[in-house]
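User:
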Amino acid sequence: MVLPNRFLYKLDAANDYFKSQLYPLGIIRLTVEKAWAFAEDKQSASKKFLSKLTRDSPDAYCKVAVGAEETWRTSTKNNTTSPAWNEEHDFVVTDLNQCITIDLLDEDVGSDDHFGLAATTVKNILSAGGKLELSLVHKEQPVEGKVALSCKFYRFAAEDSSFTASEHSADGLLCGVATIMVAGAFDVPGHRKELSPSVVVTWGEKHHFQTAVITDAPGTDIHNPTFDTTFRIPTTANMVGNGAQSFRIALMNKKDEIGHVELPLSDVSKAPDMVLQKRFDVGGGATIRASINIRGITPATMEEITLPQRQK
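Assistant: Predicted structure:
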């Protein structure tokens, strides 16, 4: 269990899933600046060639992770022990205690060698003013060398000015997040022994999600199944620009589609607080209770970063 992953266990059957959902706090834009002092730099070409043969002269790169978010890799800086990347990447933040890890490696033909691992938390780097120089540890022992990081923090907000801002348009950078919640379906047609309903959510060609498939069992209302599932999509500028795709929510029975509804991004953006939430008619007399929440980003200071409040 590593944030932002969570397991849901409903203690109160009457609980409204939409009201108890915890949304992420924002994004941290991390810049891996440089590393140094982890080996001796080679000056001449002949020494660099000999060092490469003996695997002493590194082709350095970093793997960066924030909690359970997808790992990002910097480019490789060849034949130097003082690599300077100054490369940035965005990570979604769900909790300020999420760990930031930087794994410094030497790219090689066989297997890549590890120079060391540096670690901090989102809270620590923000409390330090957005800049840290981290020491390296290898096999749980301190080693020579440091990695310099800097960052900016953006909180999520019900506004869309970040969707068109040039500072968020580069590859790998985010301009917001979309959160799709599926609470349940109602009046699913068919004989109960033949039903195994689920809901499939898609946004464009790259984003495809499916809830658990519900099967008939004692205590289960197969015609009105509960899913209580959240899908989160980090959003880039090209996803919300001209020609933005519609959200598609489909009710399935096993592999067969019962019906669906398509919801344009503009409908969500124009909804109150940029949240489109209702029971959507998908055809055949069936409906799906779902919510689509769109958030842009805005710069935030440490004092402005607060944990989300649950509605009572």
